[in-house]
Amino acid sequence: MLNRVRSAVAHLVSSGGAPPPRPKSPDLPNSTSAPPAAPPQAPRSPPARAGSGSAAPARTVEARASFCRPTFLQLSPGGLRRADDHAGRAVQSPPDTGRRLPWSTGYAEVINSGKSRHNEDQACCEVVYVEGRRSVSGAPREPSRGQGLCFYYWGLFDGHAGGRAAEMASRLLHRHIREQLKDLVEILQDPSPPPLCLPSTPGAPGSSDSSHLVGPQSCWSSQKEVTHESLVVGAIENAFQFMDEQMARERRGHQVEGGCCALVVVYLLGKVYVANAGDSRAIIVRNGEIIPMSREFTPETERQRLQMLGFLKPELLGGEFTHLEFPRRVQPKELGQRMLYRDQNMTGWAYKKIELEDLRFPLVCGEGKKARMMATIGVTRGLGDHNLRVCSSTLPIKPFLSSFPEVRVYDLTQYEHCPDDVLVLGTDGLWDVTSDCEVAATVDRVLSACEPNDPSRYTALAQALVLGARGTPRDRGWRLPNNKLGSGDDISVFVIPLGGPGSYS
Amino acid sequence: MLNRVRSAVAHLVSSGGAPPPRPKSPDLPNSTSAPPAAPPQAPRSPPARAGSGSAAPARTVEARASFCRPTFLQLSPGGLRRADDHAGRAVQSPPDTGRRLPWSTGYAEVINSGKSRHNEDQACCEVVYVEGRRSVSGAPREPSRGQGLCFYYWGLFDGHAGGRAAEMASRLLHRHIREQLKDLVEILQDPSPPPLCLPSTPGAPGSSDSSHLVGPQSCWSSQKEVTHESLVVGAIENAFQFMDEQMARERRGHQVEGGCCALVVVYLLGKVYVANAGDSRAIIVRNGEIIPMSREFTPETERQRLQMLGFLKPELLGGEFTHLEFPRRVQPKELGQRMLYRDQNMTGWAYKKIELEDLRFPLVCGEGKKARMMATIGVTRGLGDHNLRVCSSTLPIKPFLSSFPEVRVYDLTQYEHCPDDVLVLGTDGLWDVTSDCEVAATVDRVLSACEPNDPSRYTALAQALVLGARGTPRDRGWRLPNNKLGSGDDISVFVIPLGGPGSYS
Predict the structure, then answer these.
(1) PROSITE patterns recorded for this chain (chains A, B) (predicted)?
(2) Smallest Cβ distance to B328: which of A210, A309, A326?
(3) pLDDT tens digits for A411-426?
(4) With a threshold of 0.95, does the pTM exceed it?
(5) N- to C-terminal Cα distance for chain B?
(6) Contact check, Cβ <8 Å, A219/B371
(7) What pLDDT, on a 0 to 100 scale, did the predictor assign at position B99?
(8) I need a labelling partner for B25 at 20 to 30 A (CA). Which of A84, B159, B340, B444 fits?
């Protein structure tokens, strides 16, 4: 594990690549600032739980990067081979005998039926200790005061075009979140509103008053209230961005060629933050009720954002694509006829006369799982994909992808949860063939068959969900009980119980 | 009225100004195409109801434009003066003796308490007949076949920086909607799916099949289903855009200097379409339940769209504004300190080191009613404002404003409505001081005190809503019963009953 921590620190301080033109968080390691020393609090942190990464520390970096599973699965070399077997598709879970995941979280995964050589999903579950970078008041922190924060962290990463980006994100994204939270350790534990401005001079107080404001504009005569919660949201948003920038810098050295969707959960100070960038999905099932905790980002759901970008920056379309959408491909022989279309402003459709440039490929096309952006990619948010180009072209796709998650917040203290209330995270392998209601029915069926105090019930539930989406081999395919095809994709599921977190915080 | 129709047609065919670079609907009158003849079906249309416009036809165009109220109010010159009296603020409604508005719609309005010389709200209520432009099959229409469509139309227009834009929109927007629907008359009455492509050759059939599709892309192997409903939505969206373009072309000749919010309702073939661009608001109150039918577009709700535009097109900020948001004005002495900010991607807040360019005015600032874009305007969608500039600057604001409405659809046939189920439209004068729940309570109180078959009950309700928002003069102001200040703005309200439309369609 020490090797892994060192490796992570090395990643954080390594350099290369041009920084994108957006504000940098102060003191965050990046290629343009001086490399900070290794975090001084690392030896004093609580021992980190086994995260994702190498299951076989003795193997070379290359071998590990080519295929690894979450360390918390504690797979032996033989188990690793079985987990990699497309024919058997054995469901993997942490062993019942070892140390449980925090909160008795349940986890299960299964490899795809052959669409890629290895399982390109990755997962991570950690308890992360954050020590403040320095006092808000500017004075150096006294290490003995023990004013740090702990957060609980779960992450699912669904890789595409290779597993490297997912593997890297599963190792490092929570460390970026920790970096972003370091500035906030004291602020988040202080019940007064966050200071709007922090001094550059040590010892000077942060300011939150506006008594010295000037200017005639009425919109300036007041100030916005910023909540502690929105600071955590901002920290998670920026952590995603910095993770993506790190992938950009290190993509050559570490062969980070593909990309990944990221769905992470942070539990901090009584609140659950669910951050999603991609097409994974999270729901809470509470007393049978379904509460969606994320939405998917695809060419369909983000059509107007993508079209607007193509309209405002036509050079990104390279003369190969049109920002207009048509309900089907326009044929050259239809030139001069009128076809249904919609642009970046419209949700409805109208007819337009087909002109020469409408014969270009549309930026967005297709529906449902077949929807594609630039005829290439089916998700529009995530990490990585810095080298992704349009097929048979040099046109880069990355400018249209966003690394920013949508963050939803759930206050655990506002409701008295029972042991059957859970937060379910799944990659699209689960949701492609399973509806929210079917998940809720499985939650009810499995948990009501287990003792409420049996800590293995959440793993049993995760396994049932994965098995229900995978199906069984029959009639030349993996099939569900209703004889429809099961998911041939990688499937990964976390089941996080909401009934008992109080004892861990 | 004939003069008004002629005037409208003249507007539609007049020229001037450069067309914006977006697809044009075919055959729509604009400055670059040949002026069409006056609509041939006009004499055969049902007599149009009295719309908004001149209440005193004998007055000059200039005088009318300077102050007019909806014609359906049937105001005498004396009544017009009373409606224009800021001291009395008498509530205006159509007379109980005249012809009722369609569906026995209720309407009431009151002038502001002095913030502008005249009432800058306008309203329109019409039954509009649409005759198809030509047969989809390309054959000329036979006028005797009577295959036209009727739609019912209600519009509220809240002007700013003068009343001209609101007055023009109230006269013409429904005509633009009619223009857009002309192509769809046959398609909307044909139960089969709309043709995706219309022939340019008369007599050739429209195509909706994809059997001749080529190309290896799986996203191209299918075609999208386009519904009749989405064609109506597209027609309304484009009508808003063409109305805005007409204002741009004619702003010099007709002194259309300000802008307006537009909230319109179209009832067509069993469905209610509510289109909103601005900060007016529509709700349905059905059996006591509140169904929001619009959302407001302000610098707060559209922050990320505005910031994204400023980020992608920094030249629009003219070196005067920053696209970043800060919770209060940044002071020059705070240079180098760290302040909370958020950019176009963030919903949370984070700290950044203040640099020189952060001292520029932020593109978006303030909260609630004080929120402003470019320190100037508090709404971000609507019609007009083509000449609007940043105060003490030549920087145009229009590029950040959108003329596109959000359209919500409500299917009247899916629910058996009772006489107390209503759609309430109000300008912000109503909603600034009245919550959805308070409106619903007034609906219940007023309608339950009237006979269900009394057609004047909806006007009584509209009057009660306007009076409840205006208050009464007390303690040097217009005050509500709880002694809070009433609305000093113009207030206009439509109450549309949902229980009886079947007999009109």
Answers:
(1) PPM_2
(2) A210
(3) 999 999 999 999 999 9
(4) no
(5) 25
(6) yes
(7) 84
(8) B159
